[in-house]
Structure formats: C-alpha cells, structure tokens
Amino acid sequence: MILIISILIIGCLILTLQFSIFIPATKGLPILMYHKVSADWNDNLTISVKKLEKHFMYLSSHGYTCLPISKLLEKDQSLKPGKVFSLTFDDAYVNNLNYLYPLLEKYNFHCTIMLPVGFLGKTNIWDKGNEPIMNFEQLLSMDSHFVSYGLHSYKHESLLNMSSSEVATDITTCMHELSLKGIAYLPVLAYPYGAYPRDRVNKAAFAILLENLGIIYGLRIGNRVNKWPVKNRYEVKRIDIKGKDSLWKFKTKLQKGRVKMF
C-alpha cells in the first residue's frame, strides 16, 4: 500500500511539474505556430494531418474562435480576447496547400502563412532540405477568407546576423516581389528562428527600423499567451506546436503558453 501511494504521489508531482496542473490558464491571445503538415509523420517541425485535425476539432468543439492576425492590425484596443486563438504557419510548404487548406475550409478557420519570399517555388534550402515551397500561383489559388500572408524575410536568415541596412533591404525586397506578383500581404514579420535584438539599445533601434519600413507587428516565439493589448508590438509571442506533442500538451500550451518540463 505504501508503495502504491508513493507511486501515486510521484506521478502527481511529475504531472504537476510537466503540465503546470495547478497553474491557472492565462487570459489573453494564444498565437499558435506550426510549420509542415504530413500525411502520417510527426516530428518537431511536422505534424500529421490526423493530429492537426484533432487540434482543430478540439478548438472547434470547445468554443474557441479563430481570430485572424488582420484583426490585430485594426488596433482595436477594446478587443478583449476570451476563448480565441490565432493560427500561423511558417515557410509556406506545399504540404500546407495539400493538407492544411482543406482543414481550414472544413472548420472555417483562418491562418496566416509566413512567406520566406526568396524561396518561393523552391525548397527549404536553409535547412538543407528538399521540401517544396509554394510558388506564386499556388499562393494565389487559396481563398483569402481562409488564408492570409505575412513576411518571414527574404533570405530566411537570422536577423541578428544582419546589419540594419541588410534587414531593410531584405524586407523591402520581400514587399517589392510580392507586390509585383500580386500577392497581398500583411505588414507582419515573423522573425526567422525567432531571433531579434534583445539588448535595450539595439532592440529600440530595431523597432524603429521596422516601424519605418511599415511593419506593424513582429512575431517572435516566446511560448507565452499574449496579454491584450500587447505591450510591445515587435515582441508578439507565438506558441511552438510540435507534431510530437500529445493532445494533453497541446491543451496545456493553448491555455498556459508552455509545458513546464522537469
């Protein structure tokens, strides 16, 4: 009996540490971040279509509303997110068109896909991979009711490794090329690898640079639920959803931002 009780206590402690059971859900706006979708594979950057649908089914059946990123651009300070979430996918893989898009239509959700503009129509060379990236025609084929586009840089390089002039050139090149091809985009930049200046002086200069370029929101990772209104629009947090996450982990991330690992 003592052994059983001990096992139960240890199990409770593990669950408490790992899933923050006694920490209340955070009020605010969770912005979910995904990447690839596969027919049947799950890893840190890939989620199977079956598991992704379980996420969408949970969100839909539990009364969550999908808030498009474009709604945040309206700067409505009276907006008070309750049971809402925003959905983002990075890198514009062709598998998003094949597997994500039908689910968006099925559940009437909206997703903002962050475009690595210099790689459109190519592959994820930055990862030394051969996963196809959507081309302009494929981007234009999706209904704007379900999909919008944001910027994910031109070169898909860490912005920390670039000078201010290089960052400006990269972003303006994105804007020019998308406009030339008739691709509507939101003035939102998802930082490659979540990297951006962290020290006070460089961070302030970086924010001014983005503002001058017309970028309204900068998306990092952070794994936190955003309080609303956001205090710093160039440090908007996203929650990294991994294909290997259990449904329990997904629920924990949705409500609290991150899973507390022991």
What would you say about this model in short?
It contains 8 helices and 10 strands.
Structure, explained:
With 262 residues, this protein is an alpha/beta fold. The chain has a single domain, classed as Alpha-Beta Barrel (TIM Barrel). The chain contains eight helices and ten strands. The protein has helices spanning 2-19, 49-61, 69-73, 94-107, 136-140, 164-180, 200-212, 247-256, and strands spanning 31-34, 36-38, 46-48, 65-66, 84-90, 111-115, 147-151, 188-190, 217-222, 236-240. The strands form two sheets. Strands 1, 4, 5, 6, 7, 8, 9 and 10 form an eight-stranded parallel beta sheet that branches. Helix 7 (200-212) links the parallel strand 8 and strand 9. Helix 2 (49-61) runs parallel beside helix 4 (94-107). The two termini are 27 Å apart. The mean pLDDT is 91.
Topology:
Layout: H1 2-19, E1 31-34, E2 36-38, E3 46-48, H2 49-61, E4 65-66, H3 69-73, E5 84-90, H4 94-107, E6 111-115, H5 136-140, E7 147-151, H6 164-180, E8 188-190, H7 200-212, E9 217-222, E10 236-240, H8 247-256
Parallel strand pairs: 1-5, 1-10, 2-3, 4-5, 5-6, 6-7, 8-9, 9-10
Helix pairs in contact: 2-4
Domain tally: 1
CATH class: Alpha Beta
Rounded to the nearest angstrom, the distance between the terminal CA atoms is 27 Å
What is the radius of gyration computed over CA atoms, rounded to a whole number of angstroms?
Answer: 19 Å
Q: Tell me about the largest β-sheet.
A: 8 strands, parallel
